[in-house]
Structures are given as structure tokens and as C-alpha cells.
């Protein structure tokens, strides 16, 4: 006994060593082959009769494709291996076919029959791979075969095969001239499947197919009977399926459900429909009234707020912002989840999407995220794109309660940030904070004026833009105090312009000149003439933009003086006006600048000089036109319009999620169908025999949840009782035996087995005679009966051997 075991073990070890040597030699032979001869070696492996060589050849082909090489030369050799009994080889061939079948359609058609036969395989994984691969071979001529295969596999007992069928339907829709009505019917059956895995895959395919369905009836018909059921089984779906389902039901709700009603708290007489823009809600405190189905959908989203998937959180955010008021948004605490998602740097792209979502919502209602403003502070490790959006959000969330904290943060970023883009965005955010109150306007203006000598480059240009905006805000009030602030600000800017140590860039100097000229009327023209006198001295040395702004400044100053003289002497006194133009120092400086600009190398400067000469030197009528042209109030700079909802469209155009949040409009309530259309449709349940059984909603325990799916590895007690599977015979219990008892029982069992084999041969002969007379269905039943008798007889033999062993003991 021991010698025989030793021989067997030595034989196994030698076989193992031989297998390893053969595999190593094959791989080394291929690696040592020159690259020019390697295709021939791969072709030899693919044409070999040994499965191991075929597998090695397929691995070489797939790896070469992965490296970017062309695998088309091996097409004929690869397709021949579609009939291989090795599942690994077959799967690699299917992967190859889905990539190159369109290039060689005629040769690829030779493999369709073999793939179609795989649909009869006992292994559900092979059946699922077959239907998925057949749909991946994008040849229009096999579309009728594909439809027949899909019709067959939608009723397959395995959920894996039915889920793969849903994927195949999506691939067939991508093929030309295959928009068959039957495909939508098949997809509708899969949407009503009892297994959540199948439903999830069908939802993904339906989301892909939706753009191809132009008719609203065809587009939404599968959703009516499944709306309530989907709301109840959403937790059973995978994360991507949940995201797609939320997107679909959100759009469905906008089309077939009425808007929520908002009515004033303690006063139900004041009722409005939910506006698209949160900022248009007139109530501070309000109650919400929703349709029952819409309430069901919103309630189904509550457990998903704690999902680990970022895409589910973003989908919920879109759904709630599209269907509910801000109160529901805050009650479900999606603002907390979205804030945490935005502050996570595990996925920068997802964080960026979350931040843009927050910015878009905050532009309409800042109260949603204002309690969590500290989560949007910029960290040194933040990328530039995320930092910029965070700064925009901080400017949108600033209010009387938190502006002192936000302002301190923004000051630090604007002065100390090493990234120019972040510093510039921080300065723009500071300008938007000035809108909170006049106090903060004045405080921010003082800080900006102090930073002019510190900052430089593009940051200084942004700072001057903010100063211009702050002064324009003060000009709107025009009381005594505001006028004094404008004069002080203009005077400080003039000192900076005169300081030779400031070393201002051309754009910054031109901005200061423009600000002084724009507000020279508010300062009663007390600062502009002196600044112009200094600029004329260095006119020839300045850059083009500074020379141009100097010309405009001289025209604004003269226009103000002309209007002042006209008010004193009257418009008809032309002699007094001409005398003023000849003797006044401001007029003389203007004439000097015109003479300098006449020979300026810039075409724009020369053209503008000729225009000012006509308007200001040819009479009172033209001077009125010049006054209107030069002293009209200018608009607010566009860089600050994104804040506080000012012209929010300007902000939305820069939002990367604009297309994502662009959802269909609410439908007219008069076009809504009755709510009975959403009555739960029968659920398609597939039993082990492959038959489809419809389960009504009344059997779902007052909920439209899916019945327990059939498992591929185990059968629950309920399935065991309801299925047609025979009772499983328990395994016999083994007892300890001596060697003599063991060999004695083994001899008896061998004799009984030989007798049983003789009886089985006789039964097989009888069955063969019956098979020639009966149809295919009776053949299957007979074979099943024979197999059952064989299993019972084998169990009886084993039990008899156990009894004999126990008697010998």
C-alpha cells in the first residue's frame, strides 16, 4: 500500500516538472525569437493542436494589441480558435473579435455559429459572455440573429445572462438601422425583472437609449409602471445604477408630476409654485406641499445621502435642486454631504464638480452652505482650479456674520499666495465682499489703496479694477461723506502716480489715469489738471496705452470746464467760450496734447485726437455731444458680476456643470396623465425552467419590492419549497472502519456496482428504442429520469456499503 502511494506521488511530481519545463521552453523560445520572426512563431502557436500553445499565442496577440501594435495579421489564425474547448482561449478570441470584426466582416461571420452555440452552454458565465460578445461584433448583417438571441436570453434563468442581455441591447442600438421596436420591448421586460442586478444594468442601457427615443410616449412608457417600484428598490442597486436611476426619475418627475407648492407659514392663503430660481422665493419661512409620488421619490433618496459614491451624491444634489425648495435640501443634509465631498482630495475632478455645484446653488441661495464656509478655505496643497472655485464660493457665502473671517482669509491669499491666478481671484473676491454694507465698502477701499505700492503685475491691475468698482459704488450715493471719500481716493491714486519709486506697469498706470479722469467731476476737477500737467512732460516716453489714456483725461477735464463756463455765461455767448478756450490753462494743455497725439505712432490715438478736436474746438453744440460721450456713467466691471447673484447668467456661463444642470422644463399641469398610470406593473420573475412568471403587486407585501432572486450558488428555503427541484438526498454518514472492514466493504460495493452497470446498459438500450419513437421533449424527460435512477442507485450502494461495514464492526 505504501509502495503504491509512493509511486503515484513520484509520478505526479515528474509530470508537474515536465509541464513546467515545457511551458518554460515555449515561453523562452518565443522571447528569444527575433521581432521579425515573432509573427510566425505566434501563428504556429495559434495553429497548434495543443490548448496550452493556443493560450500562449492568444496571450501574445492580446499583449501586442495592448502595446499599440496591430493585431490584424493574426485574424484568420485567431478566428479558428473560436471552437476551442478551453474557456480561456475562447474568451481571448471573443475579445479579439470585438475589436477587429468590423475590419474583416466576412471572416468574422464564420465565428457567429460557434458563438451562438455557446448560448446553450451550461455555465451561465459562458452564456453571458457569448451574448455580450455577439453584440460587440458590430456587423449589421447579424442584426436579425442578434434579435433572436436577445429574445431567447431575456428569459434565461441566470440573472447574469439577463444582465448581459441588457448590455447587448445597448450595443445593438449603437449599430445603424437597428432601432427595432422589439428592442425597446425586450428592454422593458428587463426593467421589470425581479432581480435587482438585471434592473440596474437595464437602467444603464435605458439611460443610453433615451436620446434615440424621440417620441415621449415611447420614451417614458417603460417608466410609468416601474416608477414606484424603482423608488422602493433603489437601495438594492449598485452605485452607478443608482446614479442613472436618479437622473431618469428626476427628468420623469419634471414631465409627469406637478410642481411642489410653497405657502407661507401660518398663512395658507399665500401659495406659489416652486420657482426655478431659489432667489425668487418671497418667503423666509414656508411649508411645502408635494405630490405623493414626488414625495416617495424624495424619501427614497434619504438613505443614499450616506453613499460612498461621489456620483450618487452629485445626482441627489441635482435631483433635489431641480425638484424641491432649499428647505428640503437642508433637511436632508445633502449640503453637509456635498461640502464633505468638495473638501476631499481623493478625486480632484469629483471635488471640482462638487465645488461648481455648490457655487451654482450658492449664487441662488447662500443660506444653504453659509454655515459651512470654513470648509472652503484654500489649503496650500489645493490645485489652482479647486482654489479658484473655493474663492468664488467664499465670496458668494459672505454675509454680515462671517465676512470678517472671510475677509481676513482673502487678504492673506491675495498678498502671500505664490500663484498669480489665486491672488487675482482673491482680490476679485474681496471686491465682491464690499457689497455687504457701506462699512465694508469703506474698509475694503482703504485696504486696497494701501496695497497699491506692495502689489505688482496682474495683481495690481485686479486691485485697481476693484478700486474702480468700490468708487463707483460710492458714486451711486453721492452724499457729502461719499464725495469726500472719492476725492481722498483720487488724491491717493494721484500720489501713487507721481511717486517715481512705485515703478508701475503701463496697464496699472493707465488704470489710475482712467479712474482719475472718470471721477474728476466728483472731485470738482481739483486733481485732474495737476495730474495732466505731470503726464504731458513724459508723454513721448510713455507706452501706447498710457498716451491714449492721457489724451482721454485731457478731454474729460476740458469738457468739465466747458460745461462750467456755459453754466456761468450761457450757451449763446460764443465769444466768452472762445476766449476761455484761448486763455484757460486747461484748454492750453488740451491743445498741447492734441498736437502731440497728432504725430503718435498709434492709429487709435491719432483717430481719437481728431475726434476730440472736432467735438471740443468747433462750438457749443459739439461740446454737448462730447460731454455726453465722455462723462456718461460707466458700467460695473465684469470681473465682479459673478458675486451675490448680480447678473448670475455671467457666472453660469463659466460653470462647467451648466450642461449637467440643464434639465427639461416643468410640464404644463393640464398635460399630466392621471396618477393611476404609475400603478405598479407585474414583475417578470424567471424560474429554473426558464419560464417567465408575472408577479402582481398585491403579492409584494404592500411594497413593490423585488422577490428574492434565485441564487446561482445556493437555494433559499422559500425557493426550495416553491421550485420543481427534487428533494436533495443527504450525504451518507461515514463511520470508522478497520482496513479489513474497509477492503471487505469495497469488494462488495464493486460487485454491486458491476451488477448495477449491467442493469444500466439494459435500460440504456431500452431508452434508445424509445427515443426513436418520441419527440425531443420526451427525450429530455427520459434522460432526466435515468439520471435520477442512477443517483438513487449510487446512494443505495453507498448506504449498503456503510451498513455492511457497521455489521462487520
From TrEMBL:
Subcellular location field: Endomembrane system
Which intervals of the chain are annotated as region Disordered?
Answer: 697-719, 743-809
Q: What Gene3D superfamilies would the database entry show?
A: Leucine-rich Repeat Variant
Q: Which GO terms describe its cellular component?
A: endomembrane system; membrane coat
Q: Does the keyword Membrane apply?
A: yes
What does the entry give for GO biological process? intracellular protein transport; vesicle-mediated transport
Query: What sequence ranges are listed for the domain Clathrin/coatomer adaptor adaptin-like N-terminal?
Result: 38-619
* Record InterPro entries: AP_beta, ARM-like, ARM-type_fold, Clathrin/coatomer_adapt-like_N
Coiled-coil region(s): none
Acidic residues bias (residue ranges): 743-780, 787-809
User: Which UniProt keyword terms apply here?
Assistant: Membrane, Protein transport, Transport
Please give the superkingdom of this protein's source: Eukaryota
Q: What is the similarity comment for this entry?
A: Belongs to the adaptor complexes large subunit family.
The protein here is known as Clathrin/coatomer adaptor adaptin-like N-terminal domain-containing protein
- The species is Debaryomyces fabryi
Amino acid at each position: 500500500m505504501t509502495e503504491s502511494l509512493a509511486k503515484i506521488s513520484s509520478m505526479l511530481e515528474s509530470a508537474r516538472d515536465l509541464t513546467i519545463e515545457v511551458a518554460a521552453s515555449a515561453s523562452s523560445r518565443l522571447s528569444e525569437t527575433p521581432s521579425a520572426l515573432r509573427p510566425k512563431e505566434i501563428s504556429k502557436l495559434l495553429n497548434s493542436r495543443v490548448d496550452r500553445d493556443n493560450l500562449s499565442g492568444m496571450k501574445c496577440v492580446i499583449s501586442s494589441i495592448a502595446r499599440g501594435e496591430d493585431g490584424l495579421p493574426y485574424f484568420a489564425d485567431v478566428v479558428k480558435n473560436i471552437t476551442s474547448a478551453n474557456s480561456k482561449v475562447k474568451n481571448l478570441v471573443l475579445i479579439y473579435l470585438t475589436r477587429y470584426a468590423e475590419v474583416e466582416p466576412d471572416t468574422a461571420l464564420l465565428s457567429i455559429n460557434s458563438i451562438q452555440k455557446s448560448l446553450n452552454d451550461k455555465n451561465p458565465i459562458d452564456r453571458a459572455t457569448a451574448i455580450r460578445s455577439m453584440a460587440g461584433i458590430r456587423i449589421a448583417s447579424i442584426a436579425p440573429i442578434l434579435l433572436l438571441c436577445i429574445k431567447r436570453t431575456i428569459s434565461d434563468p441566470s440573472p447574469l445572462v439577463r444582465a448581459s442581455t441588457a448590455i447587448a441591447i445597448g450595443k445593438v442600438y449603437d449599430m445603424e438601422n437597428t432601432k427595432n421596436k422589439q428592442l425597446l420591448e425586450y428592454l422593458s421586460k428587463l426593467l421589470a425583472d425581479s432581480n435587482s442586478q438585471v434592473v440596474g444594468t437595464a437602467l444603464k442601457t435605458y439611460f443610453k437609449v433615451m436620446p434615440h427615443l424621440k417620441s415621449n410616449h415611447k420614451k417614458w412608457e417603460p417608466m410609468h409602471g416601474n416608477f414606484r417600484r424603482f423608488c422602493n428598490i433603489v437601495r438594492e442597486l449598485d452605485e452607478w445604477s443608482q446614479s442613472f436611476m436618479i437622473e431618469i426619475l428626476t427628468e420623469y418627475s419634471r414631465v409627469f408630476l406637478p410642481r411642489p407648492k410653497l405657502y407661507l407659514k401660518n398663512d395658507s392663503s399665500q401659495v406659489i409654485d416652486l420657482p426655478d430660481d431659489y432667489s425668487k422665493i418671497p418667503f423666509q419661512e414656508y411649508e411645502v406641499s408635494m405630490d405623493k409620488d414626488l414625495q416617495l421619490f424624495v424619501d427614497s433618496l434619504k438613505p443614499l445621502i450616506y453613499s460612498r459614491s461621489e456620483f450618487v451624491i452629485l445626482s441627489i444634489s441635482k435631483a433635489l435642486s431641480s425638484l424641491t425648495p432649499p428647505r428640503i435640501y437642508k433637511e436632508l443634509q445633502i449640503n453637509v454631504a456635498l461640502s464633505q465631498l468638495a473638501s476631499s482630495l481623493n478625486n480632484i475632478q469629483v471635488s471640482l464638480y462638487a465645488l461648481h455645484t455648490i457655487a451654482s446653488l450658492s449664487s441662488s441661495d447662500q443660506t444653504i452652505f453659509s454655515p459651512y464656509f470654513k470648509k472652503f478655505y484654500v489649503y496650500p496643497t489645493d490645485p489652482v482650479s479647486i482654489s479658484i472655485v473655493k474663492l468664488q464660493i467664499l465670496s458668494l457665502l459672505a454675509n454680515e456674520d462671517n465676512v470678517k473671517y472671510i475677509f481676513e482669509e482673502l487678504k492673506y491669499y491675495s498678498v502671500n499666495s505664490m500663484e498669480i491666478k489665486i491672488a487675482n481671484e482673491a482680490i476679485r473676491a474681496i471686491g465682491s465682499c464690499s457689497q455687504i454694507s457701506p462699512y465694508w465698502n469703506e474698509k475694503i477701499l482703504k485696504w486696497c489703496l494701501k496695497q497699491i505700492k506692495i502689489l505688482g503685475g496682474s495683481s495690481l491691475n485686479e486691485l485697481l479694477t476693484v478700486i474702480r468698482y468700490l468708487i463707483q459704488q460710492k458714486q451711486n450715493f453721492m452724499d457729502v461723506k461719499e464725495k469726500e471719500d472719492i476725492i481722498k481716493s483720487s488724491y491717493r491714486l494721484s500720489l501713487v502716480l507721481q511717486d517715481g519709486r512705485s515703478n508701475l506697469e503701463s496697464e496699472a498706470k493707465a488704470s489710475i489715469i482712467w479712474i482719475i479722469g472718470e471721477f474728476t467731476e466728483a472731485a470738482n476737477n481739483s486733481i485732474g489738471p495737476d495730474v495732466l500737467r505731470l503726464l504731458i512732460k513724459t508723454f513721448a516716453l510713455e507706452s501706447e496705452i498710457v498716451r491714449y489714456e492721457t489724451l482721454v483725461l485731457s478731454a474729460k477735464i476740458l469738457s468739465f470746464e466747458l460745461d462750467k463756463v456755459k453754466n456761468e455765461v450761457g450757451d449763446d455767448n460764443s465769444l466768452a467760450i472762445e476766449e476761455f478756450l484761448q486763455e484757460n490753462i486747461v484748454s492750453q494743455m488740451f491743445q498741447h496734447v492734441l498736437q502731440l497725439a497728432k504725430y503718435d505712432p498709434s492709429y487709435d490715438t491719432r483717430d481719437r485726437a481728431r475726434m476730440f478736436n472736432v467735438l471740443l474746438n468747433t462750438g457749443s453744440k459739439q461740446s454737448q455731444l462730447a460731454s455726453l460721450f465722455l462723462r456718461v456713467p460707466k458700467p460695473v466691471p465684469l470681473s465682479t458680476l459673478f458675486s451675490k447673484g448680480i447678473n448670475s447668467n455671467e457666472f453660469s456661463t463659466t460653470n462647467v456643470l451648466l450642461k449637467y444642470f440643464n434639465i427639461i422644463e416643468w410640464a404644463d399641469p393640464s398635460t399630466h396623465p392621471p396618477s393611476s398610470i404609475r400603478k405598479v406593473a407585474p414583475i417578470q420573475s424567471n424560474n429554473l425552467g426558464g419560464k417567465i412568471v408575472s408577479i402582481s403587486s398585491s403579492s409584494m407585501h404592500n411594497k413593490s419590492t423585488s422577490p428574492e432572486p434565485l441564487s446561482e450558488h445556493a437555494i433559499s428555503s422559500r425557493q426550495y419549497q416553491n421550485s420543481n427541484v427534487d428533494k436533495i438526498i443527504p450525504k451518507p454518514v461515514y463511520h470508522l472502519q478497520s482496513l479489513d472492514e474497509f477492503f471487505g466493504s469495497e469488494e462488495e460495493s464493486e460487485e454491486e456496482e458491476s451488477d448495477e452497470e449491467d442493469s444500466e446498459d439494459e435500460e440504456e438500450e431500452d431508452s434508445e428504442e424509445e427515443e426513436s419513437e418520441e419527440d425531443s421533449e420526451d427525450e429530455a424527460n427520459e434522460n432526466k429520469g435515468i439520471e435520477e435512477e442512477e443517483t438513487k442507485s449510487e446512494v443505495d450502494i453507498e448506504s449498503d456499503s456503510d451498513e455492511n461495514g457497521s455489521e462487520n464492526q
